[in-house]
From TrEMBL:
Record-linked PROSITE patterns: THYMID_PHOSPHORYLASE
Residues annotated as domain Pyrimidine nucleoside phosphorylase C-terminal: 414-481
Protein known as: AMP phosphorylase
Enzyme Commission number: 2.4.2.57
């Protein structure tokens, strides 16, 4: 069937085409079927959506994901991608072969799967799991599907946290310590997906984070490190598409998580990586045994890829820093580098840096001394300058949002818990990460004694409406738990 192409300005992640219901009936296609397109400028495959109103009979609505399609288009029915068959196979609990995994990754990379089919893949890996062999194959295939960075040094360090802990902004501190020690550490990081801030969001408070491959090379040549957004260099792009499908139900399958992390690290040219695995109430990993199993699999898959992986299993029940949200976390980073930040953030950053340096063969380096001497701060300022920021930035240059409210203790007692998920949700309601100055500043830690009226935390926002929204959630929840001494003893029995 020949149809006349017309561009339709609707946002879709898949290469969607709108077909009038009458034309669809004549073609014999239904919503989410595929059609093969051929026009004077090229060929492609579109995923069908039918309409009675948006497109008249004889026309084909083409979305931007298909590129520029114009004029007369020959439209024929296309078969389902092979990946659909393999996804169904995985749903049935059958282990996939390497070539089947490669086909799934290729079809995801080429946008040949509908959103529903991609969601089915995520559900299959979540409910059926991935074997170690499948995880190894998936990691390699995802790595092959994107761009790669390479470096002229034998040791390239990197760091990753699997997430789930609020205020865990150790990465800029670790990178600064390791780079100051003379080890190459080109850190590519993500923006927030479901959290109030990612490393890239926090670094964007200080400087630019989007650079080309050549610009990243220049920054690293000058400073030994960088702190940039990984999405700007197209490392493991299949992972980004899978993450979008995981988001609505907050699914993070064990094998897919490993493939996600290590495909990006391998693509970035990393040879030695430390992976932070927090566990505990509210963290992504529930208990110590699960954390150990995950660590073992990270190491095995890393060995398969020729990478040296060290895992740090850390406690993740409560936030690490005081600030939650881009500017508030940036303040913690700068204060810690200057010797005045939250103690938990300093200790964790130093420990992770020590493990990574040992992993890289630099057991002679004292991470604590690099931080205490100011060398890490100087390196951080060099990186900020190389990335177009102000190297002389101070805490006074980083004020939080002008709309604020402080939550105080309603009773005498002891802080027994700070809920990672709740404080993150409140910070997001306040506007983080889009509003850089929005978030939460924690005034009390677990174990602190408080009296009625003592400050527990302050919520900051850039607009009064968002502050009110955050306050509504806060009133319905207990983000910071205060109990009497006797109640606290019972909680820990």
């Amino acid at each position: 069937m020949e149809l006349t192409a017309r561009e339709i300005d609707i946002g879709t992640r898949s290469p969607t085409v709108l077909v009038n219901s009458d034309d669809a009936a004549e073609l014999g296609v239904h919503p989410l079927d595929r059609v093969q397109l051929a026009w004077a400028g090229g060929r492609g495959v579109g995923i069908v959506e039918t309409t009675d109103e948006l497109v008249p009979a004889g026309e084909l609505g083409v979305t931007r994901r298909l590129g520029h399609v114009s004029g007369t288009v020959e439209v024929t029915v296309a078969p389902h991608p092979d990946a659909v068959h393999y996804i169904r196979k995985k749903l049935d609990g059958i282990e996939l072969e390497r070539d089947e995994i490669d086909r799934i990754v290729t079809d995801i990379a080429e946008d040949r799967l509908s959103d529903i089919e991609l969601a089915a893949y995520v559900v299959a890996t979540y409910t059926r799991g991935l074997s170690l062999a499948e995880t190894m194959h998936l990691t390699q295939c995802m790595t092959n599907a994107g761009h790669h960075l390479s470096w002229d040094v034998p040791v390239v360090a990197d760091k990753h946290s699997i997430g789930g802990v609020a205020g865990n902004r150790v990465t800029p501190i670790v990178v600064s310590i390791v780079a100051a020690a003379g080890v190459t550490i080109p850190k590519t990081s993500s923006r927030a997906v479901t959290s109030p801030a990612g490393t890239a969001d926090t670094m964007e408070v200080f400087c630019d984070v989007e650079f080309s491959t050549e610009e990243i090379r220049e920054i690293v040549a000058e400073t030994n490190g960088c702190l940039v957004w990984g999405g700007g260099v197209n490392l493991s792009p299949v992972d980004d598409k899978i993450i979008r499908a995981e988001m609505p139900l907050s699914l993070d399958p064990h094998g897919q998580l490993i493939a996600s992390v290590l495909s990006k690290k391998r693509s970035a040219g990393s040879t030695h990586v430390i992976v932070d695995i927090p566990y505990g109430e509210g963290a992504k990993v529930a208990d110590l045994n699960a954390a150990r199993e995950l660590a073992d699999d990270f190491v095995r898959v890393g060995d398969h890829l020729g990478m040296t992986i060290e895992c740090a299993i850390t406690r993740g029940e409560v936030p690490v820093g005081r600030g939650i949200g881009p500017v508030l976390e940036a303040r913690d980073v700068l204060a810690t580098l200057d010797g005045n930040g939250p103690e938990e953030l300093r200790l964790k950053s130093v420990r992770l840096a020590e493990i990574l340096l040992d992993c890289c063969g630099r057991e002679d380096v004292d991470a604590t001394e690099i931080l205490r001497s100011g060398r890490a701060l100087a390196t951080f300022r060099d990186i900020v300058a190389a990335q177009g920021g102000d190297p002389d930035v101070t805490l006074d240059d980083l004020p939080p949002g002008r709309h604020e409210t402080t939550v105080s203790a309603s009773r005498d007692g002891v802080v027994t818990h700070v809920d990672n998920r709740l404080v993150s949700d409140i910070a997001r309601r306040a506007g983080a990460p889009r509003d850089k100055r929005a978030g939460i500043d924690l005034h009390r830690r677990v174990g602190d004694e408080v009296q009625t009226g003592d400050r527990l935390f302050t919520i900051y926002a850039e607009s009064a409406a968002k502050l009110s929204d955050a306050e509504r959630l806060q009133r319905k929840s207990e983000a910071v738990r205060v109990r009497t001494r006797d109640e606290a003893l019972v909680e820990h029995v």
